[in-house]
Amino acid sequence: MTPVIYWAGRRYGPPKDELIPFGHFEQEYTVNGQVYIQPDSWEQTLDTRKAEVICQNTYGDSLTVETIVFTHLLHDLIVIKKRFYTKSPEVTSIKASFKYQFTPPSNGTHSPKRVVSRCSWNEKIQSVEYRYESDGYKPAKGIISVFSDRLCSPIIDGQTVSLDSGIKLDAKHPAEITYYLLFSDSMDGNDYQERQERIQSYVRESGYEEIRATHETGWEKYWNESYVNLPDKPMEKVYNTAQYHLKANATKWSFPVGIFNTHWAGRYFGWDEMFCFQALASSNHLDISKRCPEFRYSILPQAIKRISHYGNQGIYGAHYPWEAMEDGEEGTPSGFWLDHVFHMSNIALSAWLQYQYTNDATYLKTVGYPIIKECARFYVSNMVYEDSNGSMFIGKCTDLERLGPAKQNPFMTACGAIYTLEAADNASGILEENKEEAEKWKQIAIKLRENLPTKDEKYIPYKDCTEKSVASLGGLFPYPVFDSGNMLQRNAVYNFVKEGKSSGNMYPVGNSLCAWYAGWMASALDLLGDRNEPEKLLKEAANGAGCFSELFEINEPKVRMHPWFSTASGNYTYALNQMLVQSKGEQILIAPAVPDSWKDFSFKLACYGDMVATVCFEKGEIIRLDLSSGKLGEVKNRILVIPEQMLNEKKLNRKIISSVEKRNGYYQLQLSVKGQSCVIL
Questions:
Q1: Any idea where the domains of the chain sit in the sequence?
Q2: What share of the chain is helix, strand, coil (3-state, %, to 5)?
Q3: Which member of 310, 450, 500, 592 has the lowest number of beta carbons within 10 Å of its beta carbon?
Q4: What whole-number distance in Å separates Cα of residue 212 and Cα of residue 47?
Q5: Which pLDDT belongs to residue 139?
């Protein structure tokens, strides 16, 4: 990947809708007449807790430069702090040059294509300013400011600027300088000039330490919302990097696969964004996860219009693009993937799951249900067919791409339709809306369940299918329409776990299991209560992570594709969360898929109904279990399900537990929670 700055939502128009590059920065140092452009040695560290990158570079025998870089959480601001160290008494000063180029990644001298830019020095505020106009998908005007906290001499050459500073060095104390890149444009409002001036003044008045502190405070809040402490530290590190990635990748719209042109130009897959959503919601990051359904609600009119009869809405539902632009328009290049429909189920799932986690009836009425309802109508009006014998099936479409186009009644797509119709029925019942239509949804879902493709006592991807596919897990993940006792689904899962590695990637390449398929499989096995395979799969995924513990779409010696792949981060995170805690209606399952070898671990994760479980294990036994409800004063009745070997009944808080029952190796505790309640002391 070529170093380049991209800004979410700033893109060119069709046909490829690529993101507009916003240049890159470099540095150069002169020491006793010797010019250094590249370091002799370097180390780079990603601090996921603080969301910053730290570089340690050495130049010759006398100069070491530490660089701390972060993109501020609250502002469109890149901060670059440099500290200079020398051990040589002969080096008393250096010339530091910070160079920013508003050019394409190819290192040209001109501004990016279809961008007109004028670069000048603003003496009054001691800043270089690029004032530009972009002829993009959404034409925009903007300003890029390049400035420092020390006096600098600007050298401007077309679209390249260098801020040069003479810096005195002391062998006892490091010298410091901070550079800032600040971005504002008319896409966020026509007051972009005033915003730029206001934020730049704030940065200068606050100084580096305060700016960094506000950035770290925002990230600290995120990390405090949930956590896991695992006995397997490599797995935990990948989990934490994935959590960092999920937040860093979240735009104000939703969750793209990545904010790079190499990653489908940051467009929004209704399919992929759900996997990020699930990870965020189950990790108690509900203020971030809601961006996904809120984005889908904001573009619902376009999705309805897409399938309306000359603009007359009717009950044809909504049809979202496979790859949506920020305004809801289609950004997908031509191909058989345009015939996917299962993304409609993922969109409905996100909308419904946000309600299940928050228990927010206002959200359900105003955002969630309108989305789910139109997705259900889409399936009924466009995809569900009735045979002469009264059975129902899903019409031909593209299921997972490895299976090819034009598959009739594919298993996973059908499970998605069932999930959508049943979610619509449930939401209708809560809100008491569309009762007659909801009964129809319910009956169609029943008919679809009766007609799913099977062979040899297991579900298969489609009728007469002979190849293995992770799609055969679809009735558990991504669409939990079956319980653990459904033997056809259980057999399909274990058959793929045993024999499906040759189909372990989205595409017909590679020889191993990709990380997001590993998370997919682990999530399905979590729901079966498997205590062995999920850990193995996630450990395998962790072993294939990159140098920062980041996950790829595919990472094999001969096939490396798409590092920092958010779908993989989402699936890995969600699968691990589901190992630790699951919600099923009013049941909360503690450690339902944790391996017996894990003795000392703890976690804080979200449960359905606006609740959070904080649990600590020592020597294989729960020593503390707290349940907290987001709504103070509200009493919630729950059933805790805990493996028998993990609970010492003497430590139960009997004040809130109405009954204790042992069943099939598990304790079932009926309890009432009000505010924060300690279940196990």
A1: 6-198+207-222, 588-680
A2: 35, 30, 35
A3: 310
A4: 13
A5: 97
**What's the Rg (C-alpha) of the chain?**
27
Q: What is the pTM of this model?
A: 0.96
Instruction: Name 190's Cβ contacts closer than 8 Å, sequence gap at least 6.
Output: none
- The DSSP code sequence of 542-574 is HHT--TTSPPPSEE-SS-EE-SS-HHHHHHHHH
- The pLDDT tens digits for 265-318 are 999 999 999 999 999 999 999 999 999 999 999 999 999 999 999 888 889 999
Which DSSP letter does residue 478 get?
T
In this prediction, residue 16 carries a pLDDT of 75
pLDDT for the residue 142: 99
Q: What CA–CA distance (Å, rounded) separates 628 from 613?
A: 7
CATH dotted code for 588-680? 2.60.40.1180
In the chain, DSSP finds a helix count (H) and a strand count (E) of 15, 33
Q: Is 94 helix (H, G, I), strand (E, B) or coil?
A: strand
Tokens of 173: 């104390």
pLDDT at 336: 97
For residues 6 and 19, the answer to whether their CB atoms sit within 8 Å is yes
Q: Cβ atoms within 10 A of the Cβ of 396, count?
A: 16
68-76 contact pairs (CB < 8 A, 24+):
70/212, 70/215, 71/248, 72/211, 72/214, 72/215, 73/214, 73/215, 73/218, 73/219, 74/214, 74/215, 74/218, 75/182, 75/199, 76/7, 76/182, 76/183, 76/184
| Structure letter (DSSP) for residue 476 | T
Q: Which residue's structure tokens are 């993937």?
A: 337
8-state DSSP, 366: I
Query: Topology of 6-198+207-222 in CATH?
Result: Beta-galactosidase; Chain A, domain 5 (2.70.98)
Q: How, if at all, do strands 587-590 and 635-643 pair?
A: parallel
Spans in the chain with pLDDT lower than 50: none
Buried b (16+ CB within 10 A) or exposed e, 216-248: beebeebbebbbbebebeebbbbbbbbbbbbbb
Plot region of 619 (φ>0 → left; ψ -120 to 50 → alpha; else → beta): left
User: What pLDDT score does 1 carry?
Assistant: 58
